[in-house]
Amino acid sequence: PGFENLTMGYNKYLRPYFGGEPVQIAMSLDIASISSISESDMDYTATIYLRQRWTDPRLVFHGNKSFTLDARLVELLWVPDTYIVESKRSFLHDVTVGNRLIRLFSNGTILYALRITTTVACNMDLSKYPMDTQTCRLQLESWGYDENDVIFIWLRGNDSVHGIEKLRLSQYTVERYYTLVSKSQQETGSYPRLILQFELRRNVLYFILETYVPSTLLVMLSWVSFWITLDSVPARTCIGVTTVLSMTTLMIGSRSSLSKTNCFIKAIDVYLGICFSFIFGALVEYAVAHYSSSQKCAAKAPQEVNKEMEEVNITNILNSSIASYKRKFSFTSIEVSSDNVNCSDLTMKTHEKIKCVLRNKIHRIIGYFTIQNPSNVDHYSKLLFPLFFMLVNVFYWAYYLYF
């Protein structure tokens, strides 16, 4: 038919069935690509083919054929005011001409297809990153016509969406998707809305090779110092400091890719914090063992010097013995020179007994925390550090993978 004759008296500013029943608009989607999913901006960019079908009785003509019209003729027809909810940026492709399609059927049905690239917001929960699963939506809604004027439906339910199951994304795998029909209640009315909801599961293998394995190896490298003697100060200090600095660099690198989402405490941050704690603990362990060893050597040094002096001069021995003998019977106040002093002496006053008991308890408590053999610190660390690290890993992976 002649298009000019068909649209004679046609008012594109009035919807079909104006003043009567609402127009039913059936939609279908083809997802051509999802080019990027940004955790920092919390959005995704997708290219879609949006197809809308409705019936306009004013465009009925005789015959059984359908006609594909020039896309520029869409300016002469009424089309739905569909928009993408939560879209940040969108554009219609126009190479080599505007990527639009108008097909007219004899019963007045119109097929209107568009090729759109849009960036849509997607609220993400990154607490389990990188073992997370994100749920994103693509929502289509009428801007000005409420449910009394238009009704949105999916053309074939879940089968109205194609292409999403064939997508190959760099970090994600599409787990499942489904379509929903909903309404948006606004102050100006209730508007029809169609929802495509899909779940994206992140591929964790990349992060295991890039972050988890190196951090675990750094922890194991810090344990090498337990097999080096306490006297090798440069070797053990070098291992401790190097592993701490390497772990710090790894933590900074893992957070740089998500610089705008630092408010989240992610699963990868927890693991890196655990590894850093074990590495720092190995460095502190050597400091404790070396300090205990130096204190023990310092305590033995005066005894060795006294033995040498005793061999040289017997007179000094006699003088020191007499002085110590007199000191035992001449002191008037209690001076605790050993770990425990007998406080049951009847000649002591009450406050002196209390002081004596307190001093004995303090010496006993200090004795509990005194390392008698510093070499045992390394011996126990060889067993305890790997054991605790394995237990922490079991709880960590069980929690983030199954809860």
TrEMBL record:
<feature type="transmembrane region" description="Helical">
    <location>
        <begin position="264"/>
        <end position="284"/>
    </location>
</feature>
<keyword id="KW-0325">Glycoprotein</keyword>
<dbReference type="GO" id="GO:0016324">
    <property type="term" value="C:apical plasma membrane"/>
</dbReference>
<dbReference type="GO" id="GO:0004890">
    <property type="term" value="F:GABA-A receptor activity"/>
</dbReference>
<dbReference type="InterPro" id="IPR006028">
    <property type="entry name" value="GABAA/Glycine_rcpt"/>
</dbReference>
<feature type="transmembrane region" description="Helical">
    <location>
        <begin position="234"/>
        <end position="252"/>
    </location>
</feature>
<keyword id="KW-0812">Transmembrane</keyword>
<comment type="similarity">
    <text>Belongs to the ligand-gated ion channel (TC 1.A.9) family. Gamma-aminobutyric acid receptor (TC 1.A.9.5) subfamily. GABRP sub-subfamily.</text>
</comment>
<keyword id="KW-0770">Synapse</keyword>
<dbReference type="InterPro" id="IPR006201">
    <property type="entry name" value="Neur_channel"/>
</dbReference>
<feature type="domain" description="Neurotransmitter-gated ion-channel ligand-binding">
    <location>
        <begin position="4"/>
        <end position="203"/>
    </location>
</feature>
<dbReference type="Pfam" id="PF02932">
    <property type="entry name" value="Neur_chan_memb"/>
</dbReference>
<protein>
    <recommendedName>
        <fullName>Gamma-aminobutyric acid receptor subunit pi</fullName>
    </recommendedName>
</protein>
<dbReference type="GO" id="GO:0022851">
    <property type="term" value="F:GABA-gated chloride ion channel activity"/>
</dbReference>
<dbReference type="GO" id="GO:0097060">
    <property type="term" value="C:synaptic membrane"/>
</dbReference>
<keyword id="KW-1133">Transmembrane helix</keyword>
<keyword id="KW-0407">Ion channel</keyword>
<dbReference type="Pfam" id="PF02931">
    <property type="entry name" value="Neur_chan_LBD"/>
</dbReference>
<comment type="subunit">
    <text>Heteropentamer, formed by a combination of alpha (GABRA1-6), beta (GABRB1-3), gamma (GABRG1-3), delta (GABRD), epsilon (GABRE), rho (GABRR1-3), pi (GABRP) and theta (GABRQ) chains, each subunit exhibiting distinct physiological and pharmacological properties.</text>
</comment>
<dbReference type="InterPro" id="IPR036734">
    <property type="entry name" value="Neur_chan_lig-bd_sf"/>
</dbReference>
<dbReference type="InterPro" id="IPR006202">
    <property type="entry name" value="Neur_chan_lig-bd"/>
</dbReference>
<dbReference type="InterPro" id="IPR008100">
    <property type="entry name" value="GABAAp_rcpt"/>
</dbReference>
<feature type="transmembrane region" description="Helical">
    <location>
        <begin position="204"/>
        <end position="228"/>
    </location>
</feature>
<keyword id="KW-1015">Disulfide bond</keyword>
<dbReference type="InterPro" id="IPR018000">
    <property type="entry name" value="Neurotransmitter_ion_chnl_CS"/>
</dbReference>
<dbReference type="GO" id="GO:0034707">
    <property type="term" value="C:chloride channel complex"/>
</dbReference>
<comment type="function">
    <text>Pi subunit of the heteropentameric ligand-gated chloride channel gated by gamma-aminobutyric acid (GABA). GABA-gated chloride channels, also named GABA(A) receptors (GABAAR), consist of five subunits arranged around a central pore and contain GABA active binding site(s) located at the alpha and beta subunit interfaces. When activated by GABA, GABAARs selectively allow the flow of chloride anions across the cell membrane down their electrochemical gradient. Pi-containing GABAARs are mostly located in peripheral tissues.</text>
</comment>
<keyword id="KW-0406">Ion transport</keyword>
<dbReference type="InterPro" id="IPR047032">
    <property type="entry name" value="GABAAR_pi_TM"/>
</dbReference>
<feature type="domain" description="Neurotransmitter-gated ion-channel transmembrane">
    <location>
        <begin position="211"/>
        <end position="307"/>
    </location>
</feature>
<keyword id="KW-0813">Transport</keyword>
<dbReference type="InterPro" id="IPR038050">
    <property type="entry name" value="Neuro_actylchol_rec"/>
</dbReference>
<dbReference type="InterPro" id="IPR006029">
    <property type="entry name" value="Neurotrans-gated_channel_TM"/>
</dbReference>
<keyword id="KW-0732">Signal</keyword>
<keyword id="KW-0868">Chloride</keyword>
<keyword id="KW-1003">Cell membrane</keyword>
<dbReference type="InterPro" id="IPR036719">
    <property type="entry name" value="Neuro-gated_channel_TM_sf"/>
</dbReference>
<keyword id="KW-0869">Chloride channel</keyword>
<keyword id="KW-0472">Membrane</keyword>
<feature type="transmembrane region" description="Helical">
    <location>
        <begin position="383"/>
        <end position="402"/>
    </location>
</feature>
<keyword id="KW-0675">Receptor</keyword>
